[in-house]
């Protein structure tokens, strides 16, 4: 988030001279690419509360892990805001004259948190944020589902491209938070450093509900849309054994004669896969 906030700060404080909206979108995309890559082989790079939440609802993340990850994500959002504020402190003072503003020509609060467009209604904001995060969840499902055979090294850049796309296509209405930690933690930070209660004041102080709860609803909806309408219709992958080379390869179920015979007792499945046997047909589906 720190790198993304810096992209936004440079654009706002330079009055778009050192970065227009497209530059901000690309910057956030690159920030997500490197953030995902850094933790990809450790935790899977849980950077987003809505993603952790829908993985929990899918049964792929224990509840305690969801809590731990969410706390870490909020801490990261707060710390990232603090680092950007520290780095651009002099420029912020020069821009707003030392008077922290949420509205108006010298407003800098939007460097950190998202705010709705003047023409956006509460209902419109609810729809916007929910749909945006649902699309994010569908793309994540598409990229990360091993049945789609997208190589792991290619996934972080694709997630970055996803953020770039969503920022360009969905950012106009309300800044497409898509992540409670990306919005609420920075909003609390701005409240603490002098922006005041106005950071919560949109829609009669109901605005913070939108970027906190709508991403959870949208992520849940999008994840289940992918699982039911897309993922369930892709041929399951079957680990295929080569005893001579002591290797396991993944093959589509339709490509082998007897998909229930997966591996010998001498071999175990790769540690980064969970094999779930279907009660209906005993054909396993492999999930990350």
From TrEMBL:
Q: Where in the cell is it found?
A: Membrane
- Which GO MF terms are attached to this record? glycerol channel activity; water channel activity
Gene3D superfamilies listed in its UniProt record: Glycerol uptake facilitator protein
Q: Which Pfam families match?
A: MIP
Keyword check for Transport, yes or no.
yes
Entry keywords, A to Z: Membrane, Transmembrane, Transmembrane helix, Transport
Function comment: Aquaglyceroporin that may modulate the water content and osmolytes during anhydrobiosis.
Q: Say which family it is in.
A: Belongs to the MIP/aquaporin (TC 1.A.8) family.
Q: What is this protein called?
A: Uncharacterized protein
Q: Lineage from the top down?
A: Eukaryota, Metazoa, Ecdysozoa, Nematoda, Chromadorea
């Amino acid at each position: 988030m720190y790198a993304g906030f810096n992209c936004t700060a440079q654009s706002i404080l330079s009055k778009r001279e050192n970065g227009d909206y497209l530059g901000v979108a690309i910057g956030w995309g690159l920030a997500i690419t490197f953030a995902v890559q850094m933790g990809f082989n450790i935790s899977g790079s849980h950077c987003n509360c809505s993603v952790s939440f829908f993985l929990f609802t899918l049964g792929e993340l224990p509840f305690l892990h969801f809590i731990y990850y969410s706390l870490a994500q909020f801490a990261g959002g707060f710390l990232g805001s603090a680092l950007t504020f520290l780095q651009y402190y002099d420029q912020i003072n020069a821009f707003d004259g030392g008077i922290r503003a949420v509205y108006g020509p010298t407003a800098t609060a939007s460097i950190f948190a998202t705010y709705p467009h003047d023409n956006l209604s509460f209902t419109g904001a609810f729809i916007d944020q929910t749909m945006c995060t649902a699309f994010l969840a569908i793309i994540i499902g598409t990229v990360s589902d091993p049945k789609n055979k997208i190589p792991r090294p290619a996934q972080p850049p694709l997630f970055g491209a996803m953020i770039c796309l969503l920022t360009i296509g969905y950012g106009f209405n309300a800044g497409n938070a898509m992540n409670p930690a990306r919005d609420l933690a920075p909003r609390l930070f701005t409240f603490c450093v002098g922006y005041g209660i106005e950071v919560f004041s949109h829609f009669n102080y109901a605005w913070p509900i939108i970027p906190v709860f709508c991403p959870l609803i949208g992520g849940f909806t999008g994840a289940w849309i992918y699982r039911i309408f897309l993922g369930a219709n892709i041929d399951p992958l079957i680990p295929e054994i080569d005893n001579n080379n002591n290797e396991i390869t993944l093959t589509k179920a339709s490509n082998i004669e007897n998909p229930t015979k997966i591996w010998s007792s001498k071999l175990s499945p790769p540690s980064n896969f969970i094999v779930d046997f279907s009660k209906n047909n005993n054909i396993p589906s492999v999930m990350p």
